[in-house]
Design brief:
Oligomer: single chain
Number of helices: 5
Low-confidence stretches: none
Helix content: 40-55%
Mean pLDDT: 93
CATH superfamily: Phosphotransferase system, mannose-type IIA component
Shape: elongated
Radius of gyration: 19 Å
Number of strands: 4
CATH class: Alpha Beta
Largest sheet: 4 strands, parallel
Strand content: 15-25%
Amino acid sequence: MVEIVLASHGDYCLGLKQTAEMITGPAENLSALSFRPGEDPEQYQHDLQEMIESRMQKGEVLLLIDLKGGTPYNMAMLTKQKLDFKVIAGANVPMLLSLLTSSPANASEAVEIALNQENWGIELEEMPQVKHRRILK
């Protein structure tokens, strides 16, 4: 089983986890680590590395991050120099649900699932045009 770690600024990753588990039920292969305002980036990197190492004992790890270039991303890339795991930036609920409901065999397969455009859940929604009828009395 692929271990999924969520990392983000603030509580975004905790919200992703909570939302996904509300829909799919508890996921033992899912964990989250928030980067808090005022937190030392080096401490966050240490905590992230510990979480990933712990998860690697159970299987391959896929790290989903809120956005590229932020502190969680930068600390993940530093950690990636020491450990072998996959990283995807731009995590969202549909992506996470696809991963949790598909049971990928390994991290590479998980990456394919996560990056499948159908799983992004991004689309423009518009109301259908309704023609108004005049009612004659």
